[in-house]
Amino acid sequence: MTQAPKETTEDVPIRVPAGPPPEVVFSAPTSDETDVQLSTTVRIQFSRDINPSTFKGHIVATYSDAETRERGEPDTPKIDFTTQYLPGTRVLEMKFANPLERFRMVTVELQDGILGGDKQPLQPWKLTFQTGP
User: Which of 9, 41, 124, 129 has an alpha carbon 20 to 30 Å from 99's alpha carbon atom?
Assistant: First the structure.
């Protein structure tokens, strides 16, 4: 004869495997795009939720230093911007304080330190595009 199963009262922790780390799945403008409008808003979409507090200090937008030297300008102009994270669509929007300069290469970098909602790090990512007339 067999015995009836006994009830267990032990609390066995359930281990759920971590999902993949977040990554960028889409951007507008796209990488290496040309003739981008001077008044553009950059949109970056992620595969997973991002902790919005980790964006601060980890996003950089710059013009090309090489273009500045070619033009004979003394300093590369700075790019001022604000960001807004839209959690429903997992999109980061970057709005520039002033229109971008004409015919300039712009680089947007997401640097180390940006974390997903589950604290997994986003790999550094770079977007480069050319403004138009």
Answer: 124
d(CA 120, CA 125): 15
Look up residue 75 and give its amino acid. D
CA 106 to chain centre: 15
| Span 34-87, pLDDT tens digits | 999 999 999 999 999 999 999 999 999 999 999 999 989 899 999 999 999 999
Query: Which phi and psi (to 5°) does residue 66 adopt?
Result: -65, -40
d(CA 113, CA 117): 13
> What is the C-alpha separation between 57 and 115, in angstroms, rounded?
13
Do the Cβ atoms of 84 and 93 come closer than 8 Å?
yes
* CATH, residue 85: 2.60.40.1220
Domain count, the chain: 1
In a domain, 17, yes or no: no
Give the domain range for residue 104: 24-130
pLDDT of res. 88: 95
Q: What is the dihedral of CA 23, 28, 29, 30, to 10 degrees?
A: 40
